[in-house]
């Protein structure tokens, strides 16, 4: 067991030396020290972002909130994967009736990391799937 702990410590030290961030913090997505504060975490959280006007159509129905959602379209329409604090649609997809698609939390965090230049701690981000049937 001692060898395993030693290996982990070496790995953590190497990661910290390369990225300038401590691996146990939410800033591990960052690759430069400029993207981290002294404590190794981004300077803002998802809750520091002002919500935008909802991009959901009025007929959109809530489907689920989970780390991974497997969804089969009951009719033709559009699926919206939304970060629920900000109302930002991080992913949309048109689906024909019966089409099956998976949505994962990583899809949302990657989109938000890109949108906010890796400057947001996404630990508290919550994603929900909504479906709007075609009219």
Any descriptors?
two-stranded parallel ribbon, 135 residues, 2 domains, alpha+beta, four-stranded antiparallel β-sheet, 21% helix
Topology of this structure?
Layout: H1 2-19, E1 44-45, E2 61-64, E3 68-72, E4 77-83, E5 88-95, E6 100-104, H2 105-115, E7 120-121, E8 127-133
Parallel strand pairs: 1-7
Antiparallel strand pairs: 2-8, 3-6, 4-5, 4-8
Question: How does this model look, in words?
Answer:
- With about 140 residues, the chain is an alpha+beta fold.
- The chain has 2 domains: about 1-40, no CATH class; about 45-135, no CATH class.
- Helix content is about 20%, strand content about 30%.
- It has 2 helices and 8 strands; from the N terminus they run H-E-E-E-E-E-E-H-E-E.
- It has helices spanning about 1-20, 105-115, and strands at about 45, 60-65, 70, 75-85, 90-95, 100-105, 120, 125-135.
- A 4-stranded antiparallel beta sheet has the order 2-8-4-5, covered by helices on one side. A two-stranded parallel ribbon has the order 1-7. A two-stranded antiparallel ribbon has the order 3-6.
- The radius of gyration is 19 Å and the shape is elongated.
* pLDDT averaged over residues: 74
Number of domains: 2
Order of secondary-structure elements: HEEEEEEHEE
Shape: elongated
Helix content percent band: 10-25%
User: Can you tell me the residue ranges where pLDDT is under 50 for at least 5 consecutive residues?
Assistant: 1-38
CA-to-CA gap between the ends?
60 Å
- The secondary-structure class comes to alpha+beta
Characterize the biggest β-sheet.
Answer: 4 strands, antiparallel
* Extended strand count: 8
Order of strands in the sheet with most strands: 2-8-4-5
Oligomer: single chain
**Estimated share of beta-strand residues:** 25-35%
- Structure annotation, total helices: 2
Q: Report the radius of gyration as a whole number of Å.
A: 19 Å
């Amino acid at each position: 067991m001692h060898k395993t702990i030693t290996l982990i410590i070496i790995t953590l030290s190497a990661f910290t030396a390369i990225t300038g961030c401590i691996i146990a913090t939410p800033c591990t997505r960052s690759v430069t020290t400029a993207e981290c504060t002294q404590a190794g975490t981004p300077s803002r959280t998802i809750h520091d972002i002002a919500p935008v006007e909802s991009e959901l159509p009025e007929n959109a129905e809530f489907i689920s909130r989970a780390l991974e959602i497997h969804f089969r379209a009951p009719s033709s329409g559009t699926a919206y994967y939304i970060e629920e604090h900000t109302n930002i649609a991080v992913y949309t997809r048109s689906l024909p009736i019966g089409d099956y698609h998976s949505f994962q939390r990583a899809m949302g965090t990657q989109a938000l990391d890109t949108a906010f230049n890796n400057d947001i701690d996404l630990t508290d981000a919550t994603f929900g799937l909504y479906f709007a049937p075609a009219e």
